[in-house]
Design goal:
515 residues; alpha/beta; seven-stranded mixed β-sheet; 11% strand; globular; LPCAT1-like
Length: 515
């Protein structure tokens, strides 16, 4: 060994040293959120590996052959799964001696608070009925004298907050004048924020159509000249955007309030934004709501409404902070897209909250509820960051739930993974080389099992291929014209498309035979 000098490294590099991992982080504001290429930067193509997996009854040979190459597939890209659960309430259970003692001590207080809540709700309901009585022209702004009657309901709302333990609410900043910011957006953590904003701003809100049927509450939000929207109906969403634009443009209407995340979260992340508040192109004031706590998480996540209300009633005091941020205006002298406007606003909110932004959406909540309903041990494993999936593959949340229904029939294990033989059984495929190639194509991590995210990405990827529909039509035309109930291997590649997307028996009922 040569004597070392000052320029020689103390530890010479070894040929077997692993390569360095280099992460490139891009400025999220410099890319278009709808761009598939930017979304794919966090995805990895796993279909260029060779490996063997013993999967119990079957041995899967993960070859480099792509069974969908003839349709134009260049391999499957599956984005890494997020470990964040935006709906997890960390204090769903009452734990610890202090919490149980507090519960016992506060039970009499909770009874008084419940009575106060009921009385205030009744007073607010009756005042709202008086304010709405005889008012026929609901498309116009509420007359001033009716709005003055609604002050009774607004004060009742403040007493309702008091009954829930919000004796004082810390505020930072002030609401901007309506002519400076006709639209207000806020993060959404609990059912408390709408009550607070009703008292503080008396805005026009955008809400789901189902809220209209809630006893007492439905009547009160109608007085706010609510803009109803069905999130699954494109015409309804278009109508809601037009109404937002109409009411934001007129000083006769109050501010328009939206929760662009579309549902409540635990407040520790910021989910992807819906674009309804940003399409009209008016200045927007972001508002942050925080619930500082030690023992009781006040977020309305994976906890029932009744249990959350009971826990609030049995606290000495619940803390709430509201911060009005500076107004975010559309960029001057250039036409800014709603996507970029939403990204700038969400960045302001995330920075103020000091939280990360994810691509979760209401669709992930639907998947989570379906997994909980089917009693999966780890329901959060079935969330896929639906906003990213919709951007990449243009499939809806309802379609993703349909895929989950099919996946759950495959008997996933406690970790949410499906084995080869269960995959074949549900999709009615026979064990053969071609079936192995299909399974290996979806098994992006080459682990011998597939997750729901891999199944969804694989199915959506195949459906998006340019020749997918044409191949299906040809395959089933051949199936019907031949009069056979089986398809040979050289014909079966067309039907393997249906095998992967879980729609094998939609048009006819063939079985796959490998010869």
């Amino acid at each position: 060994m040569a004597d070392p000098d000052l320029s020689s490294p103390l530890l010479p590099s070894q040929p077997s040293d692993p390569p360095h991992l280099i992460l490139t982080i891009h400025d999220s504001l410099s890319h278009n959120n709808n761009s598939s290429s930017s979304n794919r930067e966090s995805c990895v193509n796993h279909n260029h590996q060779n490996s063997h997996h013993n999967n119990g009854n079957s041995i899967i040979n993960s070859s480099t052959k792509n069974p969908y190459e003839f349709l134009g597939s260049k391999g499957l890209e599956v984005c890494g799964s997020s470990t964040v659960d935006p709906f997890l309430n960390k204090t769903g259970r009452i734990e610890g001696l202090y919490e149980w003692l507090k519960l016992v001590v506060c039970l009499p207080v909770a009874a008084v608070r419940l009575v106060l809540f009921g009385v205030c709700l009744l007073i607010g309901f009756l005042a709202t009925k008086v304010a709405l009585y005889g008012w026929k022209d609901r498309q116009s702004a509420m007359p001033v004298w009716r709005s003055r009657i609604m002050w009774i309901t607004r004060i009742s709302a403040r007493f309702i907050l008091f009954s829930f333990g919000y004796h004082w609410i810390r505020r930072k900043g002030k609401p901007a004048p309506r002519d400076s910011a006709p639209i207000v957006v806020s993060n959404h953590v609990s059912y408390i924020e709408p009550i607070f904003y009703f008292y503080e701003l008396f805005p026009t809100i955008v809400a789901a159509e189902s809220h209209d049927s809630i006893p007492f509450v439905g009547t009160i939000i109608r007085a706010m000249q609510v803009i109803y929207v069905n999130r699954f109906s494109p015409p309804s969403r278009k109508h809601a955007v037009n109404e937002i634009k109409r009411k934001a443009s007129s000083d006769r209407f109050p501010r328009v309030l939206l929760f662009p995340e579309g549902t409540t979260t635990n407040g520790r992340i910021l989910m992807s934004f819906q674009l309804g508040a940003f399409i009209p192109g008016y200045p927007i004031q972001p508002v942050i709501v925080r619930y500082p706590h030690v023992h009781f998480d006040q977020s309305w996540g994976n906890i029932s409404l009744a249990k959350l209300m009971f826990r609030m009633f049995t606290q000495f005091h619940n803390f709430m902070e509201v911060e009005y941020l500076p107004v975010v205006s559309p960029l001057p002298n250039q036409k800014e897209t709603a996507v970029h406007f939403a990204k700038r606003t969400s960045h302001a909110l995330a920075t103020g909250l000091n939280v990360i932004q994810t691509s979760h959406s209401y669709g992930d909540l639907m998947l989570l509820m379906k997994a909980i309903e089917s009693k999966q041990e780890k329901p959060s494993n079935y969330m896929v960051e639906m906003a990213k999936v919709q951007s990449l593959f243009h499939i809806s949340s309802l379609e993703a739930v349909d895929f989950l229904d099919k996946f759950l029939l495959m008997n996933p294990n406690p970790s949410g993974c499906v084995k080869f033989h269960d995959f074949l059984k549900v999709l009615r495929l026979k064990a053969c080389t071609l079936s192995e190639e299909i399974f290996s194509f979806i098994d992006a991590e080459k682990s011998g099992t597939i997750t729901f995210k891999q199944f969804l990405f694989g199915s959506a990827h195949v459906m998006k291929l340019p020749l997918f529909r044409q191949a299906c039509e040809l395959a089933f035309a051949e199936c019907k014209s031949g009069g056979n109930d089986y398809i040979l291997e050289h014909e079966s590649q067309f039907l393997n498309v249906f095998g992967s997307v879980g729609k094998f028996d939609q048009t006819c009922n063939p079985r796959l035979e490998c010869r």
